[in-house]
Amino acid sequence: MFSFGKGKATEAAGREVPLTTNEVPAAGEVQARFDETWGYQQPQTEGTFTQRFAVDQDRPMLLDTGALYDHSLEGAAELPVKQEWWRQVIAAVQQHPEVRGVTFLETNRREPEASNRVADWRDTAVPGIAGSFRTDLQDADHFVFGPVTERITPQDGAAAISQEYETGGDQMAWIVWLAAGLAAVFLLSGLVGRLLPSWRYPDDGKPGRDLRLDLFRGFIILAVVITHIEIGGPYSYITLHATGAITGAEMFVFLSGMVLGMTYPFAIKKFGEWVAAVGAWKRARKQYLVTLGVILVVFAMSFIPFLNTDAITTFTDRGTGTGGVGAEGRVYDLYPNAMQLLAYPPPWYAIRQFLLLEMGPWPFNIMGLFVVLSLFIPLFMWVIRRGFWWALLVVSWGVYVFQALNPDFRPLNSQFEAVFPLLTWQVVFTHGLVLGYYRRQVIGALTGRLGKVLIGVGITGYALFLVYVWAGNQFGFTPTPFPATMYDQLYNTAYQRVDLQWGRLVDIAFFAIVSYAILTVFWKPIAAVLGWLWIPIGQASLYVFVWQVFFALAIASIPGVDWFNGWIGFAAHTALILLVWYMIRKKFLFSVIPR
């Protein structure tokens, strides 16, 4: 229903064409149009349009409207022409509850009614007119202001991936009993180490690769792959439940820092500090280019009809993300404005989002964190080598606390920052660097008499604390000096992954120490059973992480398979694990993909 500034109530539409002057709409015109008494030479007897198509059919109605103004003609001013029209519209729709929404045409375009001259339909182009329009809408107290649909930003989609809110009791039970079990094995390892010294890891104190770390990294990266390939089975049950508070991400970041802390000094010794730094930056550049390449390859593959790229380029909220239960089922596009990259020339905002890693498949978003952290390795190692490791850790904790106090601060706004905030997660990587550099000294201190006592007290104390709080909830007593509600609140106040809260940080240290001790004492039987598989995978963990994106895509693109059948899931996971092991053995694309 538009006002073209022509015609009268008793004349057929288009009688006075072309428009010769700007006129204020006649009083009552909009209501007369609703009543279908405007512009008809003969009375209408079949009822009004809204009665026939909206009221009688029980359908909501959307009114698209606006008033034309030709700036090249004389007559009434623009504000009176448009204001009289919108005031009539506002008054009329309040009498027609079938009208659920009103849109006002907001454009300049050529109109036949203005002799094909450019006509102005806009109500918001001139501040004075826009202000009057808004005032009249607000005074009507009939309209809802805001977006037509709920505004979902790319950051909302990235944050939903975190799935950070869990049912505290069930998740805490796994954390409690895994900690208790590992503490028991840790204490047992002391006895086994004395009785069966031949099982120990043959660590002669010489520099070189630590296969314990490689094997542990193999386990961690496989946990990441299995978690991201969302199918059922015993593997996924273990990685999702039976690893306590730890997920592959935290340990992946920590171990990466630790390995770099161990190996970087060899590069300095061999090539010098500057050449080693340039090598580290080249490695970061390669990681960045590979990340951009994966983003583009997945985007290109989205045009292949039989591939279900939506499985990794969108994310469906499970109701456990930052949006809560109310967001369950909401689908987020993780490639915002990616189609604009195909425009010629592509707009800068789309290029910027691509270059700053604000888009990409969700199983791959942590790669951005590694790219940024890798840029700081030479600086961090320069500080550590000069004995100021303590200053680096002080700064690291200061940045961590700053992020905790300012949770919405995002220095880069890249996709990974919603799930792995840079200023928070750097604390794990930085500690890994320091521990890796001083590994021999740290191990020597912890394996001395005092070190063993302190570690034993810490490990058993942490496990007993968790069991004590769990027992209070289970048997209905208050775990003094802690509150009775502590167990129910513990997961959400101490173990949230995104924020790396205190409980999760303690669990990282607990898990790392216990695992290292177990691998040291039980090395030969563990290596005999799992070493052939986990060690090479751990040594090429970054390579595996890149490929898992395409494994997830391949699984999602196979139709008609019940992927939540335990046996099918077991077979699929086993096949993928053996496939990646074989690819590593054959060094498939090693020259392209970083390891």
Secondary structure layout:
Elements: E1 2-3, H1 29-35, H2 49-55, E2 61-67, H3 78-93, E3 99-104, E4 108-111, E5 117-120, H4 127-140, H5 154-160, H6 168-195, H7 211-228, H8 234-241, H9 248-271, H10 273-301, H11 310-313, E6 314-316, E7 331-333, H12 348-355, H13 366-375, H14 377-385, H15 389-405, H16 422-437, H17 439-446, H18 449-475, H19 486-494, H20 502-521, H21 523-539, H22 541-556, H23 566-585
Parallel strand pairs: 1-2, 2-3
Antiparallel strand pairs: 4-5, 6-7
Helix pairs in contact: 1-3, 3-4, 6-18, 6-19, 6-20, 7-8, 7-9, 7-21, 7-22, 9-10, 9-16, 10-13, 10-14, 14-15, 14-16, 15-16
In a nutshell, what does this entry contain?
This protein is mainly alpha-helical and 595 residues long.
General description of the model:
The chain is mainly alpha-helical and 595 residues long. It is 57% helix and 5% strand. The chain contains 23 helices and seven strands. It has helices at residues 29-35, 49-55, 78-93, 127-140, 154-160, 168-195, 211-228, 234-241, 248-271, 273-301, 310-313, 348-355, 366-375, 377-385, 389-405, 422-437, 439-446, 449-475, 486-494, 502-521, 523-539, 541-556, 566-585; strands spanning 2-3, 61-67, 99-104, 108-111, 117-120, 314-316, 331-333. The strands form three sheets. Strands 1-2-3 form a three-stranded parallel β-sheet, with helices on one face. A two-stranded antiparallel ribbon has the order 4-5. It has a two-stranded antiparallel sheet with strand order 6-7. α6 (168-195) packs across α19 (486-494), α7 packs across α8 (234-241) and α14 packs across α16. The model is unreliable at 9-15 and 165-169 (pLDDT under 50).
